[in-house]
Amino acid sequence: MDEELKSLIKVWISAIISISYCYYIPPRIKSGVPRLCSLCPVLALFLVLPLCFSSVHLSLITAFFLTWLANFKLILFSFDKGPLIPLPPSLSRFICFTCFPIKAQQNPKSQNHMPKLVFAIKVAIFGVLLHLYGYRKNLSPALLLALYFVHLYLEIEIILSFIKNVVCIFLGCDLEPQSNKPYLATSLQDFWGRRWNLMVPAILRPFFF
What is the DSSP string of 32-45? Predict the structure, then answer.
């Protein structure tokens, strides 16, 4: 555990230093291939940083935030596209917007208490699900599979919402919503493409098209 903690500290210190370089140096270079070339050492580093862990859990989390999310955003940034354009006014915002699935809200709206209520309900349901696992022997396989699906969905939603709320308080700015009432989806395509984890299509569309 001590070695994993040391690796975690080293990895994220390396990531913060690398992203700080991306904030100060590449914006002074012409967008396109020249800027992309200046970012290549950072992109390569983010590919190998998850390998510093022996824990699969930490490796997957780091791969999601750095290898996938940060690298895609930085590649878009090299061509003046994506959520890092326009350049955030401070380094702390640039680091958070690069690593986490968040984006600054262009037209901030008045504070709405409903998202907090929904978040509290999700946490309560998640707690009930954890309690139900104690009776898994009495549950049918179909119901248990449904519980696993809801568990996975709620866990990801709670983690992303927690990150968004903490960063929002830390940065003092409004952020774009990460989902659009996914529980009201009418189809799998509607759920995946239009309602759940809106940052994924927001990054993938400009990257591939």
Answer: THHHHHHHHHHHHH
